[in-house]
């Protein structure tokens, strides 16, 4: 069914490219719905409140943008704190090299290494702790987004149970499935990266990691290998297109039909 919906998605995209009308504006779902129905009106199919589900869709899309933006801000600040200790880390690593005429001084290498490591951990651990605290707070928002996408998934399943009697629902269900898939892919990126960061912080807090491991930890923290910028950008763009097409479906701007029970629910 998802494959069929993707074919419909391609068809509608082509239709929109040939459309000479002005670009579709994207107002908030419930505001546009209010132009057609009163805000108090409820539309349901077998107990499902469609107005409420569409508001969840809207909140989910806005929430994803907010989450990504806040994550990026915390990450930028944490990278600044890492850069502040990079010089100290490099000094520790260089101590393994030749000491020249200083080799004759007793314990000079060990004493210098010990002092630099204390400085490194005194600066690094508290700054990463502050970042982890902010990331952890943000993951509460992550859980809220996951609950919302679960709600949309349940909504799609409830529609699927009516698809046999209303075949027109299949395309709508397909678009909802695409939205759920895109959101899951986005959330999975950040969940994996959070687990990496919390692992790094916990090990650094214990103070057992050697200098080579610390260096690699900070490289991984900065690089965020689980978050691929181009893939994330594409997922967000696809998500916008899925939402826009849903709006166009309920505005009657595509060839996709919906059952009469949905005709008054406009995005």
Short description:
By secondary structure, the protein is mostly helical.
How would you describe what is shown here?
There is one protein chain. The chain is 72% helix and 1% strand. It contains seven helices and two strands. It has helices at residues 2-17, 29-34, 50-94, 108-160, 169-206, 211-223, 229-250; strands at residues 44-45, 48-49. The chain has a two-stranded antiparallel ribbon. It starts with a helix and ends in a 17-residue tail after the last helix. The model is unreliable at 5-10, 12-48 and 263-267 (pLDDT under 50).
Unreliable spans are 5-10, 12-48, 263-267
Strand order of the biggest β-sheet: 1-2
Number of helices: 7
Instruction: Look at the structure and give the mean pLDDT.
Output: 77
Largest sheet, in brief, is:
2 strands, antiparallel
